[in-house]
Amino acid sequence: MTKESLSPQEWKERGNSEFNKGNLEEALSCYTNAINLTKDENAEKAIFFKNRAAVHLKQLEYDKAVKDCDEALKICPSDPKALFRRCQALDALERFEEAYRDARYVINADPNNKAIKPIIARLHEIVQERHRQNSRVSAKVSQMFELAFDMHTDKEKRETAMNNLLVLSREKAGAEVMFSEHVVTKIAKLLKTEKNEEVTLAAIRIIAELCKENVTRTDAIIREVGIPWFLEIINSKNEERVNAAQYCMQTILNAYSGLKNKPDSQPDKELCEKYKKEIDTLLSCLVYSTTSRTIYGEARDAIIELLIRNIHYTALNWAERLIEIRGIQRLMEVASELPEYKYESAMEITDSTRTVTSVCFARIYENMYYDAAKDRFTNAIDDFIKDKLITPDLESKVRVVVAITTLLLGPLDVGNSIIAKEGVMEMILVMAGTDDILQQKVACECIIAAASKKDKATSIINQGVNILKKLYQSKDDSIRVRALVGLCKIGSSGGNDATFRPFADGATKKLAEACRRFLINPKKQKDMRKWAVEGLSYLTFDAEVKEKLIDDKDAIQAMIELAKTGDKSVVYGVVTTLVNLCNAYDKQEIIPEMVELAKFAKQHIPEEHELDDDDFVNKRLCVLGKAGVTSALVALSKTDSQNSKELIARVFNAICSQQDVRGIVVQQGGAKVLLPLALEGTPKGKKQASQALARLGITINPEVAFPGQRIYEVIRPLINLLDPECSALENFEALMALCNVAGINDAVRKRILDEGGLQKIENYMYEEHEMLRRAATQCITNLVMCEETIQFFEKENDRVKYLVILCEEEDVDTSMAAAGALAMVTSFSKIACLKIFDVKRWPEVLRFLLANPNPDIQHRGVVVVLNMMKSTKEVACRLVETDIMEILMALTKSNTVEKQEVKKLASEALEAASKWKVIEKCDDSANAAE
């Protein structure tokens, strides 16, 4: 019978059959087919909905169960089963009042329903308690309202009252009461005149809490105050206020789209479609506000950051929508803004604005997944440039060059395509050759940005190097430092290849010394020090420059202090310099055969400098760690650039490779920053951050390195390193760290199991590599302290069998770990005791353990035998049939046994055998002893 020929009733019968077998997906499909084939709203269709709701309940899809029950009740309003199932779903969703309502309906419709009676009794207590709690909360809210919103109340009391309201808003009861008491209206009115920043911050955060994961409240709040109101409250120079308002707007988007504040969260497509209009309105408001002349630079940065954070979600489709609403042109307008042009309609920008905008361009372009979309992006850029260059005035040309520079810092390919257009490079070079300081400055910056790749640098060398040398002779320091960076960049175009030098010998050292003078001079403006660090970021490919710089304490400290300012425009320069100093970049694997082939073909062969040997690198890492580089990395990690985050993770990982400085990394907040870096970002960045966390977890007590909730958060990054794509070192360090983490408590061990850690760890017990095998076995030893782990060993598998085999390992530590794990498993599980006999050589293994010269292994062995002897008579009998009993008796009498505990346990094993009455000698020997 084909799918099409089945009637709705037959689909229902098939669904019932699959449901009874436990095949929930098949049952769900059958009931759905029955619903789709039934056009009339009749009693049969209500049954189909009820049945599908039962499947959703089994799958823990409570929202879907409620919806199906709603549909069934539309057709049959008093159906007891539909009411009961909706009651169960609402109860699971903690919508207790609604669940209690349905339970009462069920009792009214079916007074003899025994299943509902305990549920209604429990729900009655919950509802009554919640009512009492709501009454208390309501009184507390009213009291806090009186204090917080009365401008004549004492300042400290108002602050305390508003912060108390914030705490209440985080609780479900408090949020409901406050919302029903029109707290949003009160806050909107208050913020028009409020001068106290503490009160303002708490008020904004209250709105965010009300919106959090509650689309109904969010929608009501937006309808009441409107999105422009949120753009007003974000408009501030106060960093905390801007961050609070930015978080509030993100929370609104999360509510509409179903996003959660988790790294791997994705929008709900159904929600996005349902609230498409609201989400589009939010995007439009954000985009139009980017070029607002009435907002502060800090607010502009925060708004662009919001675009960056959400641009990559396919369900939102913001990347393509930005092009449709001319968002690219608006961002180019921001990218072209210069502080030097101060006039009435100028935009206020910060030192970080252009950097943030370049990151936004890069993220948008990354999400242009097909050629037509990329073409639309490029065309939007072209439109902006053409519009600017229609008027031949100087300001337009300068702005175009500044915008191109910003592009080159983001989607490099797009920037390079613009540079390659006829007349653009010529215009830049002409500007660089003028006597006008501003033109020289912007042209110099563009040349620096354009020389990003070796092939591009070649054309710049041919056309621009003489101009840069000329500009370096300028009396204006701002021009000199930019020209210096350009020369540094061209000078470093060979990377870390010691044989490639575009300039004469010694030139890079002289350039580095010039950068150093700008960097350490406290009289120089921060802008010049920023450029000096960027120059060093190119020059430090040279090993001699690295060694000279690492010995210069003043320069290192100046660089760290510059990073700690949090200016996003310094991120690239500082982090790249640190990556070079740490040799934390990807190194090309050198294959001897390929080298010989290259020599034969007379091809250039890159060579690493002797000053980049491990000894020199390790010294540099220790110097940086002790100089406080972690504090600089913590400040720089606030960047939105995923590539910069990867570089930060690389530096962290390199520093953490040195055991001596791991404690400093933790003290200065490194572990806290590494967690988000390990969960979000580029694949390489996540891997680097995860390995850094593993290294911290190996040598530092995990409870110190990852206090509180962090101990649970670090588990996933560590498990992610247990992947065939990772190196053996990364696998080993992850296993070592997980072993330490698993030794903390049962809650942590359960989290490892929930993350699928057991299976991944076990895979390495079969590795040929001795250290990997040992680390995995030691990790399992700690995991089996959790009862849930024991259940895995009791199932139909060879887990116990392999532990027994590993007990005979030549490596003492592996043998000890396997015996320890076996001792733990057998102490909890009789099934595991019986499974030991699955190993053909089990008597030899037990002999090996009991007679082992290592007292620790011997101790574990006698515990295993004792556990087996105590488990069941069947197991005891099989033990007695071997010479194990003689070995136990020998142990009780031996004078060479190092641990007295071994003798005691051996005696207990013999007594256990005696209790099963499988041996007679125990009593005789006991009488003889008397």
Structural class call reads: mainly alpha
**Mean pLDDT metric:** 86
Count up the helices.
56
Query: What ranges have pLDDT less than 50 throughout 5 or more consecutive residues?
Result: 495-504, 921-930
Terminal-residue CA separation:
83 Å
- CATH architectural arrangement of the domain at 492-586 and 609-700: Alpha Horseshoe
Helix content bin: over 70%
Strand content: under 5%
Main sheet?
Answer: none
Radius of gyration, taken over Cα atoms and rounded to an integer in Å: 35 Å
CATH class of the domain at 492-586 and 609-700: Mainly Alpha
Topology-level CATH name of the domain at 492-586 and 609-700: Leucine-rich Repeat Variant
The total count of strands amounts to: 0
CATH superfamily placement of the domain at 492-586 and 609-700 = Leucine-rich Repeat Variant
What is the global morphology?
A: globular
What does this structure look like?
The structure is a single chain. By secondary structure, the chain is an all-alpha fold. Among the domains are: 8-113, Tetratricopeptide repeat domain (Serine Threonine Protein Phosphatase 5, Tetratricopeptide repeat); 492-586 and 609-700, Leucine-rich Repeat Variant, CATH 1.25.10.10. It is 72% helix and 0% strand. It contains 56 helices and no strands. α51 (842-850) crosses α52. Mean pLDDT is 86; it is low at 495-504 and 921-930.
Question: How do you describe this structure in short?
Answer:
The protein is mainly alpha-helical and 930 residues long. 72% of the residues lie in helices and 0% in strands. Residues 495-504 and 921-930 have low confidence and may be disordered.
